[in-house]
Write a structure and sequence with these properties.
alpha+beta, seven-stranded mixed sheet, 6 helices, OB fold (Dihydrolipoamide Acetyltransferase, E2P), 235 residues
Length: 235
């Protein structure tokens, strides 16, 4: 009995300690490691306040820039001033275009007109195809004209025509002038660097019609060339 009593006291103490531990576990239960839901963990975690949120200042409203506008005439719009009657002439569109073309053509240098294989009608007139060309600056006898020298006559008009044709032969000439009518042209013509009018007057086959050719005519008369000869040529 006495041995049993001595051994029973520690056992009682151990039982009491075990009972106290059991009661403490019931009062403060702890979740098992790795167990429990995320919601329970979030509920148990303390709430820490964050930094205060600063309010943004409202940006100022941009107003459109004001333009520097000058008001003239009290802000009233007036129509164009009417020209006095008779001073303003409005041309139709086609007439205005023609006038502009004419002015432009007058401003630009004109290209010479070329005539191929001209035939001499007389010493002052040529024909190229269907166009008659009158040489400016000269006067010539018709091809049928005959000159009288000391009671004798000779076909000076035909001689002059033939001389011009021998000069030109079948070559082309370039002329500066204008058409004076349908298929009729008048101007100064050249064969290469030779002015036809100046050549005719210098050779005595035509008379000068302009002052610039008068000196050539005087020289031809003095030398007795062409129609100015003192004796008829051999025929």
């Amino acid at each position: 009995m006495g041995g049993a009593h001595r051994l029973g006291k520690p056992v009682v103490v151990g039982i009491l300690l075990a009972a106290a531990m059991a009661l403490g576990a019931c009062d403060d239960p702890k979740p098992a490691a790795g167990g429990g839901s995320g919601a329970d963990a979030d509920a148990a975690a303390p709430i820490v306040p964050g930094p205060p949120i600063q309010a943004r200042e409202a940006s100022p409203t941009h107003e459109p820039a004001k333009e520097d506008v000058r008001i003239i005439g009290g802000g009233k719009l007036t129509g164009p001033t009417e020209a006095p009657e008779g001073e303003l002439i409005r041309l139709p569109a086609e007439h205005a275009a023609e006038e502009a073309n004419r002015r432009e053509a007058a401003r630009l240098p004109k290209a010479p007109t070329s005539f191929a294989r001209p035939l001499a009608i007389d010493a002052a007139t040529l024909r190229s195809g269907g166009t008659v060309i009158e040489l400016a600056g000269v006067r010539a006898h018709p091809a049928t004209h005959r000159c009288e020298i000391g009671g004798a006559s000779w076909p000076c008009g035909n001689f002059a025509r033939a001389a011009l044709q021998r000069l030109i032969r079948a070559r082309s000439i370039a002329c500066d002038g204008e058409f004076t009518g349908e298929a009729r042209f008048r101007g100064q013509c050249r064969l290469g660097g030779t002015d036809l009018a100046a050549w005719l007057v210098a050779q005595g086959w035509a008379a000068a019609a302009t002052d610039d050719l008068k000196p050539l005519e005087a020289e031809a008369r003095k030398a007795g060339r062409g129609i100015w000869r003192s004796t008829p040529p051999p025929q």
